[in-house]
Amino acid sequence: MSSTLYSRLFLDLAREIESGRRPVGSRLPSIRQLSRERGISKSTVLAAYDRLEAEGLIAARPRSGYYVIDTTTRDAAAPRLPQTSQPECTPLPVTSGQILLDIMQRGTAFDLLKDTHHEQGNTALRRCLSRAQRRQTLSAQQNYDEPQGSERLRLLLSQRLMQGGSRIGRDELVITGGCQHALMLALMATTRPGDIVAVESPGYYGVLQLIEALNLKALELPSSASHGLSPDALELALQHWPVKVLVVSPSYGTPTGACMPESNKQRILELMTRKGVPVIEDDIYGELSFSGLRPPTLHSYDKSGSVLLCSSVSKSLSRDLRVGWIAPGRYLDQVRHLKLVTTLASCQAQQEGLAFYLEAGNFDRYLRLRRERLRIQYRELRELLHQHLPMLESCSQPRGGLSLWLELPASIDTIQLYHRAQTEGLVLTPGRLFTAQSRYGNALRLSFAFPWTEQRQKSVTKLGMLIREQLSQP
Ligand SMILES: Cc1ncc(COP(=O)(O)O)c(C=O)c1O
After folding, report:
1. Domain extent at residue 328
2. Residue at a domain's end among 362, 395, 410
3. In terms of domains, do 256 and 160 share one?
4. 204 within ligand 1 shell (Cβ under 6 A)
5. Which pTM does this prediction carry?
6. In a domain? residue 425
7. CATH code: domain of residue 317
8. Do residue 130 and residue 225 come from a single domain?
9. Is the beta carbon of 284 within 6 A of some atom in ligand 1?
């Protein structure tokens, strides 16, 4: 994809929108149509649309296309976006105290309230899993699976990964026990104790925990709540520190839900490739865009095998399946060996069941519904925040994923709030969890992964009351 073509298209369209030639409410040509008309690739058009969306000029409507939106009234009542973070850009060891570990254990299990409604799980998935169990042979029970994982599942996954622009052969994939395991293998393959790992800040606490367990150092980098990791900050960090690997989550990463523009992905990859430093890409939320348009992976731009792509079905299908994967690029041999060392093998019946599910074409249908639900639940959460947390200083505006990031007035301490909320039966996820530094003390991550039942709505009302209670204390 040419960056000049992409920026020319972006500028042309932005001008047409701003001059009124493309009025508010009008629909932009489809990606395929514009790609044909201009003789450019679909990814170039997608990148330009992505940028227009990030600039707040257009919005995607599910299964309908992109529309020009009114920038003067757009989310006028919404709290502003959080500022780009400013962590201390020095490599530091991670030492999480007991409080953070306790919070993590609770927060990993659920968000706000323990799920009390007993809706049945995905029936088609359950059927495929039991079919796999029923068919299990004696030989499968008495032998470990091959270390790389089921060949059939790897083939199906490699076909699926093409949707994100990643061309990965089945022999280049390794099945893991979830994405956390994939991230661990990726870090073990690319680092030695004492090495520096560059990460987004705020960023996924599971990566910080791995950095701590593997005796590495975290170099936290400024990141924006809408565009993710700052390429400028990365460039500066690479000049100052011998970074061994970067861990990044370009699509709707937790906690902010930011989505990295295509031009930033390309620049980040260029910077890393020039230095010969690998990138671990966590793509676990890649399939959860509200619009249904799957962002290309950073991996899709990689030509040198420097990106280790990690993901799983935990966020898109089932957390309980414990099936993930890694495409380790030039680290394939090390990762294959490390998988053997860390778990010997994956469960054959689970992999088989997932393979049945994918083969039956159930996943895309399920994902369409799930994305639509997530979009509605996100909007409902925004409305609840508007009603019950008017004191918000800022709030991220994700276009996919499962969570948003909000900042409360500076006097609020969300760890204290966490303890107070616990006495009311609520579990919060304080901002401190997403850094190894003493930061984000007034921030919270809120998830919109679950429907806003009456009880969950009440929990947001209660949260508002608890915040007001803390604000009124001297
Ligand atoms: C960004 C990110 N990566 C990885 C994981 C771990 O995923 P899995 O359940 O597949 O191990 C999570 C889970 O919360 C996550 O948020």
Report:
1. 123-362
2. 362
3. yes
4. yes
5. 0.85
6. yes
7. 3.40.640.10
8. yes
9. yes
Structural domain tally of the chain? 3
Peptide bond into 147 cis (omega under 30): no
Q: How far is the CA of 8 from the centre of ligand 1 (A)?
A: 37
Least confident of 62-76, 125-139, 166-180: 62-76
- Candidate from 105, 110, 204, 319 with most ligand 1 atoms within 8 A of CB, to mutate: 204
Q: Is the CB of 324 under 6 A from ligand 1?
A: yes
Contact 154, 148 (CB under 8 A): yes
State the closest ligand 1 atom to the C-alpha of 319, by its place in the atom list counted from 1. Answer: 9
Cα 190 from Cα 181, distance rounded (Å): 14
Which residue has its alpha carbon closest to ligand 1 atom 6? 180
Q: Which residue has the CA at smallest separation from atom 14 of ligand 1?
A: 108
pLDDT-based confidence at 74, cuts 50/70/90?
Answer: very low
The H or E element containing residue 414 is helix 414-423
The full DSSP string for 75-132 is TTTSPBPPPPP----S-EE----HHHHHHHHHHHH-SBS---------HHHHHHHHHH
Is residue 220 situated within a structural domain?
yes
Q: Which residue in this structure is represented by tokens 């992505």?
A: 50
Q: Confirm whether 282 is domain-assigned.
A: yes
Q: How far is the CA of 179 from the centre of ligand 1 (A)?
A: 5
Residues 145 and 108 reside in one and the same domain: no
* Ligand 1 atom index nearest CA of 313: 10
Question: What mean pLDDT is predicted for residues 119-148?
Answer: 88
**Rounded distance from Cα 293 to ligand 1 centre (Å):** 21
Q: Which residue among 333, 362, 391 closes a domain?
A: 362
169 CA → ligand 1 middle, Å: 24
Q: Is 206 in the pocket of ligand 1 (CB under 6 A)?
A: yes
Domain shared by 63 and 153, yes or no: no
Task: Mark whether 209 and 265 lie in a shared domain.
Answer: yes
379 C-beta closer than 6 A to ligand 1:
no
Q: Does residue 82 lie within any of the structural domains?
A: no
Same domain, 197 and 265: yes
Q: Is 202 in the pocket of ligand 1 (CB under 6 A)?
A: no
Are 59 and 113 within one domain? no
Distance in angstroms (rounded) separating the CA atoms of residues 149 and 283: 19
Ramachandran category for residue 322: left, alpha or beta (phi over 0 → left; psi -120 to 50 → alpha): left
* 191 three-class SS: coil
Q: Which atom of ligand 1 is nearest to the CA of 181?
A: 11
Q: Are 174 and 312 in the same domain? A: yes
The percent of residues in the chain predicted with pLDDT above 90, rounded, is 68
